[in-house]
Amino acid sequence: MKRRTRNIVWSLLMILALLAAPLKVTAAEQNGESSDKQQNETTEQKTEETEETAPEMTTDLGLASPSVLLMEAQTGTVLYEKNASEQRSPASITKIMTLLLIFEELEKGTLQLTDEVTTSAHARSMGGSQVFLEEGEKQTVETMIKCIVVASGNDASVAMAEHIAGTESEFVSRMNQKAKELGMNDTKFEDCCGLTDSDGHYTTAADVAKMSRELIERFPQILNYSSIWMEEITHVTQKGSKPFTLTNTNKLIRGYEGCVGLKTGSTSKAKYCVSAVAKKNDLTMLAVVMGAPDYRPGTRSPAGTFGCLRKAGYGRTGICGRIPLSCDGRDGDW
Questions:
Q1: Residues that are catalytic
Q2: How does strand 138-140 pair with strand 116-118?
Q3: Strand, coil or helix: 36
Q4: What is the pLDDT of residues 301-324, one digit of tens each?
Q5: The pTM is what?
Q6: For 165, left (φ over 0), alpha (ψ -120 to 50), or beta?
Q7: What CA–CA distance (Å, rounded) separates 271 from 265?
Q8: Beta strand extents in the chain (DSSP E only)
């Protein structure tokens, strides 16, 4: 058990390192040659070392991201952190709190998954990441949840906020109250979706971990939604019916075995952020990365390639792969 735990922890630390560190292009890669063999050997050597000793949690991993945290979700034990109390713009990982309040309303019975939510003009006007809801369009609460957690729809987030609290501003007040209840003392929300670049909208990696843990521990069903890769919804408006495909902004769920969520976010101010959840056997790990730099300018993606993820594997198994996580350039998600 202890050996397996050490291997899992090391794997999650590798995820943090590869999410948050800049991509280094070797001469071989510049010449179109693969360096996977050398990388596999390095990964295997590190994995063998974990058979005897656990990784040193206080070691400086050389991460380029200014703020990171790794937590074992069930106990809330922090396994690694770097500037986790530094206040930063959260972008769309703001929606974790929005989702938490939605699921609390479902728990209280004041909201049902089958209830219909009407999109207002204000909700429809949201820019950035959206699912293109039309004014007056109705979708069920469950569909709205998918639009928020899968496609990071700002319009869906505002529509749900208005449905629950009457106005977005009242809903944001509830978000801030909930943050206080959770001990998120370095957090203040000004909207329900994270689209704003206001200096008054901020949180920390430690606080993101708190609200993420609260969401997945109290309402584990959220992971059934956050692990959806693609799903089709139907827009029904005065113009008729039209299918629309939701695609998950979190590419880790396809690139890292065991990753089941949770939420990504990016703006020019926040840079790249993620609260990622990975499960294996009886362990659930939560990794928060904030402010990861855009270190691949000039690529075809408007915001460049987010990074290179390498699966460190468990025990002596190592599988390497690269997944470009690129921003759509409009708002704020990979």
A1: 92, 95, 152
A2: antiparallel
A3: helix
A4: 222 222 222 232 222 222 222 222
A5: 0.77
A6: alpha
A7: 8
A8: 67-72, 77-82, 116-118, 138-140, 230-237, 240-247, 259-267, 271-280, 283-292
